[in-house]
């Protein structure tokens, strides 16, 4: 039976590909969550008035890929020490958050975060939040699978993130 995970880690454009290419991933949707406005638009979220953050909703087969494995991938796509954005993307709509669906996800996220903190990999504190999942609203079609439809723009957006990943996770 399929499960879902929701992760926010900066621009959703850069969060899709690392998950989508994994065995056991059934679907990855870019969207918005964590706010107080139903069905927000990209423009509304960018205005910083809805409380939403850009996120990805991942549907996965837990018999093929575990939630813990998704957490490992998540940490390698974000700067967990930056509470107000990720890389070139600044603002509360780009904050890093693990949105948990139930107590099992919450406990796994807490343990994963503690393991990252104990690793000493980062000099600054890990500030990624772990929050209960809220309604998830898919983004407009133009934002879905952005990396496939806009490879040049994606490459530009992805470059800074990739540099960070190469420095901190290799």
UniProtKB/TrEMBL annotation:
Kindly give the SUPFAM superfamilies that the UniProt entry links to this protein. Answer: Peptide methionine sulfoxide reductase
One Pfam family name is PMSR
**What EC identifiers does the entry list?**
1.8.4.11
Catalytic residues (positions):
11
Show where the Peptide methionine sulphoxide reductase MsrA domain sits: 4-155
- What are the recorded GO MF terms, alphabetically? peptide-methionine (S)-S-oxide reductase activity
- Reaction catalyzed: L-methionyl-[protein] + [thioredoxin]-disulfide + H2O = L-methionyl-(S)-S-oxide-[protein] + [thioredoxin]-dithiol; [thioredoxin]-disulfide + L-methionine + H2O = L-methionine (S)-S-oxide + [thioredoxin]-dithiol
Superkingdom of origin:
Bacteria
* Keyword annotations from UniProtKB, A to Z: Oxidoreductase
Task: Tell me the protein family, please.
Answer: Belongs to the MsrA Met sulfoxide reductase family.
Q: What does this protein do?
A: Has an important function as a repair enzyme for proteins that have been inactivated by oxidation. Catalyzes the reversible oxidation-reduction of methionine sulfoxide in proteins to methionine.
Q: Which PANTHER family match?
A: PEPTIDE METHIONINE SULFOXIDE REDUCTASE, PEPTIDE METHIONINE SULFOXIDE REDUCTASE MSRA 2
Name of the protein:
Peptide methionine sulfoxide reductase MsrA
Origin species: Lacticaseibacillus baoqingensis
Organism lineage string: Bacteria, Bacillati, Bacillota, Bacilli, Lactobacillales
- The gene it comes from is msrA
């Amino acid at each position: 039976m399929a499960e879902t995970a929701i992760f926010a880690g900066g621009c959703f454009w850069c969060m899709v590909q690392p998950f989508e290419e994994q065995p056991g991933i059934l679907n990855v949707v870019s969207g918005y969550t964590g706010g107080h406005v139903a069905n927000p638009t990209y423009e509304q979220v960018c205005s910083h008035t809805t409380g939403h953050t850009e996120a990805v909703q991942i549907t996965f087969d837990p018999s093929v890929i575990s939630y813990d494995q998704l957490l490992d991938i998540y940490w390698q796509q974000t700067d967990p020490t930056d509470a107000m954005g990720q890389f070139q993307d600044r603002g509360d709509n780009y904050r890093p958050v693990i949105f948990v669906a139930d107590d099992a996800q919450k406990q796994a996220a807490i343990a994963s975060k503690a393991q990252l903190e104990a690793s000493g990999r980062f000099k600054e504190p890990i500030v990624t939040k772990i929050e209960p999942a809220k309604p998830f609203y898919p983004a407009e079609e133009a934002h879905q699978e952005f990396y496939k439809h806009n490879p040049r723009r994606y490459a530009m957006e992805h470059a800074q993130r990739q540099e960070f990943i190469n420095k901190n996770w290799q």
